Amino acid sequence: AQKITQTQPGMFVQEKEAVTLDCTYDTSDQSYGLFWYKQPSSGEMIFLIYQGSYDEQNATEGRYSLNFQKARKSANLVISASQLGDSAMYFCAMREGLPGGYQKVTFGTGTKLQVIP
Amino acid sequence: SAVISQKPSRDICQRGTSLTIQCQVDSQVTMMFWYRQQPGQSLTLIATANQGSEATYESGFVIDKFPISRPNLTFSTLTVSNMSPEDSSIYLCSVEVPQGSETQYFGPGTRLLVL
Protein backbone atom coordinates (compact mmCIF):
# COMPACT_ATOMS: atom_id res chain seq x y z
CA ALA A 1 0.00 0.00 0.00
CA GLN A 2 1.11 3.53 -0.71
CA LYS A 3 2.33 5.35 2.37
CA ILE A 4 1.27 8.74 1.04
CA THR A 5 -1.49 9.18 -1.54
CA GLN A 6 -2.19 12.36 -3.45
CA THR A 7 -5.11 11.67 -5.77
CA GLN A 8 -5.08 14.97 -7.64
CA PRO A 9 -2.33 15.05 -10.29
CA GLY A 10 -3.40 18.56 -11.28
CA MET A 11 -5.58 21.34 -9.93
CA PHE A 12 -6.69 24.75 -11.17
CA VAL A 13 -7.76 27.63 -8.95
CA GLN A 14 -8.81 31.17 -9.67
CA GLU A 15 -6.58 33.86 -8.26
CA LYS A 16 -7.74 35.02 -4.80
CA GLU A 17 -9.80 31.87 -4.29
CA ALA A 18 -9.03 29.11 -1.77
CA VAL A 19 -7.94 25.63 -2.82
CA THR A 20 -7.61 22.31 -1.01
CA LEU A 21 -4.97 19.76 -1.97
CA ASP A 22 -5.73 16.25 -0.77
CA CYS A 23 -3.39 13.89 1.04
CA THR A 24 -4.05 10.60 2.76
CA TYR A 25 -1.48 8.50 4.57
CA ASP A 26 -1.00 5.02 5.92
CA THR A 27 0.99 4.19 9.01
CA SER A 28 0.73 1.98 12.07
CA ASP A 29 2.92 4.35 14.10
CA GLN A 30 1.34 6.34 16.91
CA SER A 31 3.96 9.07 16.56
CA TYR A 32 4.51 10.53 13.12
CA GLY A 33 4.79 13.85 11.35
CA LEU A 34 3.14 15.21 8.23
CA PHE A 35 4.65 17.86 5.98
CA TRP A 36 3.80 19.82 2.89
CA TYR A 37 6.43 21.09 0.48
CA LYS A 38 6.16 23.36 -2.55
CA GLN A 39 8.35 22.82 -5.60
CA PRO A 40 8.29 25.63 -8.18
CA SER A 41 9.65 25.11 -11.67
CA SER A 42 13.11 26.08 -10.41
CA GLY A 43 13.24 22.70 -8.65
CA GLU A 44 13.89 23.73 -5.07
CA MET A 45 11.82 22.13 -2.32
CA ILE A 46 10.27 24.70 -0.01
CA PHE A 47 8.95 23.62 3.38
CA LEU A 48 5.44 24.98 3.99
CA ILE A 49 3.84 23.45 7.05
CA TYR A 50 4.12 20.65 9.61
CA GLN A 51 1.57 18.69 11.66
CA GLY A 52 2.52 16.28 14.41
CA SER A 53 0.34 13.27 15.07
CA TYR A 54 -0.24 14.37 18.66
CA ASP A 55 -1.05 17.97 17.80
CA GLU A 56 -4.67 18.67 18.61
CA GLN A 57 -4.88 21.92 16.69
CA ASN A 58 -4.61 22.13 12.93
CA ALA A 59 -1.33 23.73 11.87
CA THR A 60 -1.39 27.14 10.20
CA GLU A 61 1.35 29.18 8.57
CA GLY A 62 0.15 32.39 7.00
CA ARG A 63 -2.08 31.49 4.03
CA TYR A 64 -1.41 27.79 4.52
CA SER A 65 -3.39 25.57 6.85
CA LEU A 66 -3.37 21.83 7.29
CA ASN A 67 -6.74 20.13 7.75
CA PHE A 68 -5.72 17.17 9.89
CA GLN A 69 -8.30 14.41 10.30
CA LYS A 70 -6.52 11.69 12.21
CA ALA A 71 -9.28 9.09 12.15
CA ARG A 72 -9.52 9.41 8.38
CA LYS A 73 -5.73 9.55 8.03
CA SER A 74 -5.92 12.66 5.94
CA ALA A 75 -3.79 15.80 5.98
CA ASN A 76 -5.14 18.17 3.36
CA LEU A 77 -3.41 21.46 2.58
CA VAL A 78 -5.60 24.53 2.29
CA ILE A 79 -4.21 27.58 0.53
CA SER A 80 -6.31 30.69 1.04
CA ALA A 81 -6.38 33.71 -1.27
CA SER A 82 -4.37 32.02 -4.03
CA GLN A 83 -1.68 34.04 -5.76
CA LEU A 84 -0.06 33.53 -9.16
CA GLY A 85 3.18 32.65 -7.36
CA ASP A 86 1.45 29.66 -5.79
CA SER A 87 1.58 27.84 -9.13
CA ALA A 88 3.89 24.88 -8.43
CA MET A 89 4.03 21.20 -7.55
CA TYR A 90 2.96 20.41 -4.00
CA PHE A 91 4.17 17.33 -2.17
CA CYS A 92 2.73 15.78 0.95
CA ALA A 93 5.21 13.83 3.07
CA MET A 94 5.20 11.73 6.21
CA ARG A 95 7.94 11.03 8.74
CA GLU A 96 7.60 7.80 10.65
CA GLY A 97 9.80 5.65 12.81
CA LEU A 98 11.16 2.37 11.56
CA PRO A 99 12.70 -0.58 13.47
CA GLY A 100 15.99 0.31 15.09
CA GLY A 101 15.06 3.91 15.87
CA TYR A 102 15.51 5.01 12.28
CA GLN A 103 13.23 7.76 10.97
CA LYS A 104 12.24 8.02 7.32
CA VAL A 105 10.33 10.58 5.30
CA THR A 106 8.19 9.34 2.41
CA PHE A 107 6.81 11.65 -0.26
CA GLY A 108 3.58 11.49 -2.23
CA THR A 109 3.42 11.78 -6.00
CA GLY A 110 2.54 15.44 -5.91
CA THR A 111 -0.21 17.75 -7.15
CA LYS A 112 0.46 20.37 -9.79
CA LEU A 113 -1.41 23.54 -8.91
CA GLN A 114 -2.02 26.23 -11.49
CA VAL A 115 -3.43 29.58 -10.43
CA ILE A 116 -5.46 31.31 -13.13
CA PRO A 117 -5.51 35.12 -13.27
CA SER B 1 15.74 26.49 9.42
CA ALA B 2 19.06 25.90 7.65
CA VAL B 3 20.76 27.38 4.59
CA ILE B 4 21.93 24.65 2.27
CA SER B 5 23.99 24.99 -0.89
CA GLN B 6 24.76 22.42 -3.54
CA LYS B 7 27.41 22.31 -6.23
CA PRO B 8 27.14 22.01 -9.15
CA SER B 9 23.66 23.39 -9.74
CA ARG B 10 23.49 21.53 -13.04
CA ASP B 11 25.71 19.44 -15.29
CA ILE B 12 25.67 17.55 -18.54
CA CYS B 13 27.77 14.41 -18.47
CA GLN B 14 28.75 11.61 -20.78
CA ARG B 15 27.72 8.06 -20.01
CA GLY B 16 30.30 6.03 -18.17
CA THR B 17 31.70 9.00 -16.27
CA SER B 18 31.16 9.95 -12.63
CA LEU B 19 29.97 13.17 -10.98
CA THR B 20 30.43 14.25 -7.38
CA ILE B 21 27.79 16.55 -5.90
CA GLN B 22 28.64 18.64 -2.86
CA CYS B 23 26.24 19.73 -0.12
CA GLN B 24 27.17 22.42 2.41
CA VAL B 25 25.07 23.50 5.40
CA ASP B 26 25.44 26.71 7.41
CA SER B 27 25.07 24.92 10.75
CA GLN B 28 26.05 21.61 12.27
CA VAL B 29 23.49 18.89 11.67
CA THR B 30 23.46 15.22 12.58
CA MET B 31 21.31 13.85 9.79
CA MET B 32 21.82 14.54 6.11
CA PHE B 33 19.86 12.89 3.33
CA TRP B 34 20.28 12.43 -0.41
CA TYR B 35 17.24 12.17 -2.67
CA ARG B 36 16.74 11.57 -6.36
CA GLN B 37 13.87 13.05 -8.34
CA GLN B 38 13.53 11.59 -11.80
CA PRO B 39 11.76 13.71 -14.43
CA GLY B 40 8.09 14.19 -13.53
CA GLN B 41 8.39 11.99 -10.48
CA SER B 42 8.35 12.37 -6.73
CA LEU B 43 11.37 12.26 -4.43
CA THR B 44 13.03 8.96 -3.65
CA LEU B 45 15.45 8.63 -0.75
CA ILE B 46 18.84 7.31 -1.83
CA ALA B 47 20.60 7.21 1.53
CA THR B 48 20.95 8.74 4.97
CA ALA B 49 24.39 10.07 5.90
CA ASN B 50 25.42 10.46 9.53
CA GLN B 51 28.77 11.95 10.40
CA GLY B 52 31.35 9.36 11.37
CA SER B 53 29.48 6.32 10.15
CA GLU B 54 28.67 4.53 6.92
CA ALA B 55 25.71 5.84 4.99
CA THR B 56 22.50 3.83 5.16
CA TYR B 57 21.18 3.04 1.68
CA GLU B 58 17.57 2.47 0.70
CA SER B 59 16.41 -0.54 -1.23
CA GLY B 60 17.50 -0.27 -4.85
CA PHE B 61 20.51 1.91 -4.16
CA VAL B 62 24.03 0.61 -3.55
CA ILE B 63 27.25 2.12 -2.33
CA ASP B 64 29.21 1.20 -5.46
CA LYS B 65 26.84 3.27 -7.59
CA PHE B 66 26.23 6.12 -5.14
CA PRO B 67 29.18 6.46 -2.76
CA ILE B 68 28.62 9.06 -0.07
CA SER B 69 31.04 10.90 2.17
CA ARG B 70 30.22 12.74 5.39
CA PRO B 71 33.49 14.09 6.74
CA ASN B 72 31.97 16.56 9.21
CA LEU B 73 28.69 17.94 10.53
CA THR B 74 28.26 20.58 7.80
CA PHE B 75 29.28 18.80 4.59
CA SER B 76 28.51 15.75 2.49
CA THR B 77 29.13 14.52 -1.05
CA LEU B 78 27.23 12.13 -3.28
CA THR B 79 28.94 10.57 -6.27
CA VAL B 80 26.94 9.20 -9.17
CA SER B 81 29.24 6.57 -10.67
CA ASN B 82 29.43 5.05 -14.12
CA MET B 83 26.50 7.16 -15.25
CA SER B 84 23.86 6.15 -17.77
CA PRO B 85 20.99 8.22 -19.24
CA GLU B 86 18.70 6.66 -16.60
CA ASP B 87 20.63 8.62 -13.96
CA SER B 88 19.36 11.90 -15.42
CA SER B 89 17.52 13.43 -12.47
CA ILE B 90 17.52 16.17 -9.90
CA TYR B 91 19.63 15.19 -6.90
CA LEU B 92 18.65 16.91 -3.66
CA CYS B 93 20.47 17.12 -0.39
CA SER B 94 18.44 17.70 2.76
CA VAL B 95 19.13 18.11 6.45
CA GLU B 96 16.99 17.48 9.48
CA VAL B 97 16.68 20.41 11.84
CA PRO B 98 15.45 19.33 15.28
CA GLN B 99 13.00 22.07 16.14
CA GLY B 100 10.42 19.77 17.63
CA SER B 101 9.11 18.87 14.20
CA GLU B 102 12.44 17.49 12.92
CA THR B 103 11.67 19.15 9.64
CA GLN B 104 13.81 18.40 6.62
CA TYR B 105 15.09 21.38 4.69
CA PHE B 106 16.36 20.98 1.17
CA GLY B 107 19.17 22.34 -0.89
CA PRO B 108 18.45 23.87 -4.31
CA GLY B 109 19.20 20.58 -6.09
CA THR B 110 21.59 19.48 -8.82
CA ARG B 111 20.09 18.92 -12.26
CA LEU B 112 21.98 16.14 -14.01
CA LEU B 113 21.62 15.20 -17.65
CA VAL B 114 23.50 12.15 -18.88
CA LEU B 115 23.97 11.80 -22.64
Overview of the structural elements:
The complex is a heterodimer of chains A (117) and B (115). Chain A is mainly beta and 117 residues long. Chain A has strands at residues 4-5, 10-14, 19-21, 24-25, 32-39, 46-52, 60-61, 64-69, 74-79, 88-98, 102-107, 111-116. Chain B is mainly β and 115 residues long. Chain B is 0% helix and 52% strand. Chain B contains no helices and eleven strands. In chain B, the strands form two sheets. In chain B, strands 2, 4, 5, 6, 9, 10 and 11 form a seven-stranded mixed β-sheet that branches. In chain B, β4 and β5 form a beta hairpin. The mean pLDDT of chain B is 92. The chains are: A mainly beta (117), B mainly beta (115). The interface between A and B is medium-sized, with 22 and 24 residues.
> Which secondary-structure class do the elements of chain B indicate?
mainly beta
What fraction, in percent, of the residue positions of chain A are helical?
Answer: under 10%
Q: Report the order of strands and helices of chain A.
A: EEEEEEEEEEEE
The proportion of residues forming helix of chain B, as a percent range, comes to under 10%
* Mean of pLDDT of chain B: 92
Average pLDDT figure of chain A: 93
Which H/E pattern describes the elements of chain B? EEEEEEEEEEE
Number of helices, counting only DSSP H or I runs of 4 residues or more of chain B = 0
**How many strands, what sense, and barrel or not for the largest sheet of chain A?**
6 strands, mixed
Shape of chain B: globular
Distance between the termini of chain B: 36 Å
Strand content of chain B: over 45%
Distance between the termini of chain A: 38 Å
Strand % of chain A is: over 45%
Largest sheet of chain B: 7 strands, mixed
Number of strands of chain A: 12
Chain pair sharing the greatest interface: A-B, 22 and 24 residues
Regarding quaternary structure, how should these chains be classified?
A: heterodimer
How many strands in all of chain B?
11
How many whole angstroms does the radius of gyration of chain B measure? 13 Å
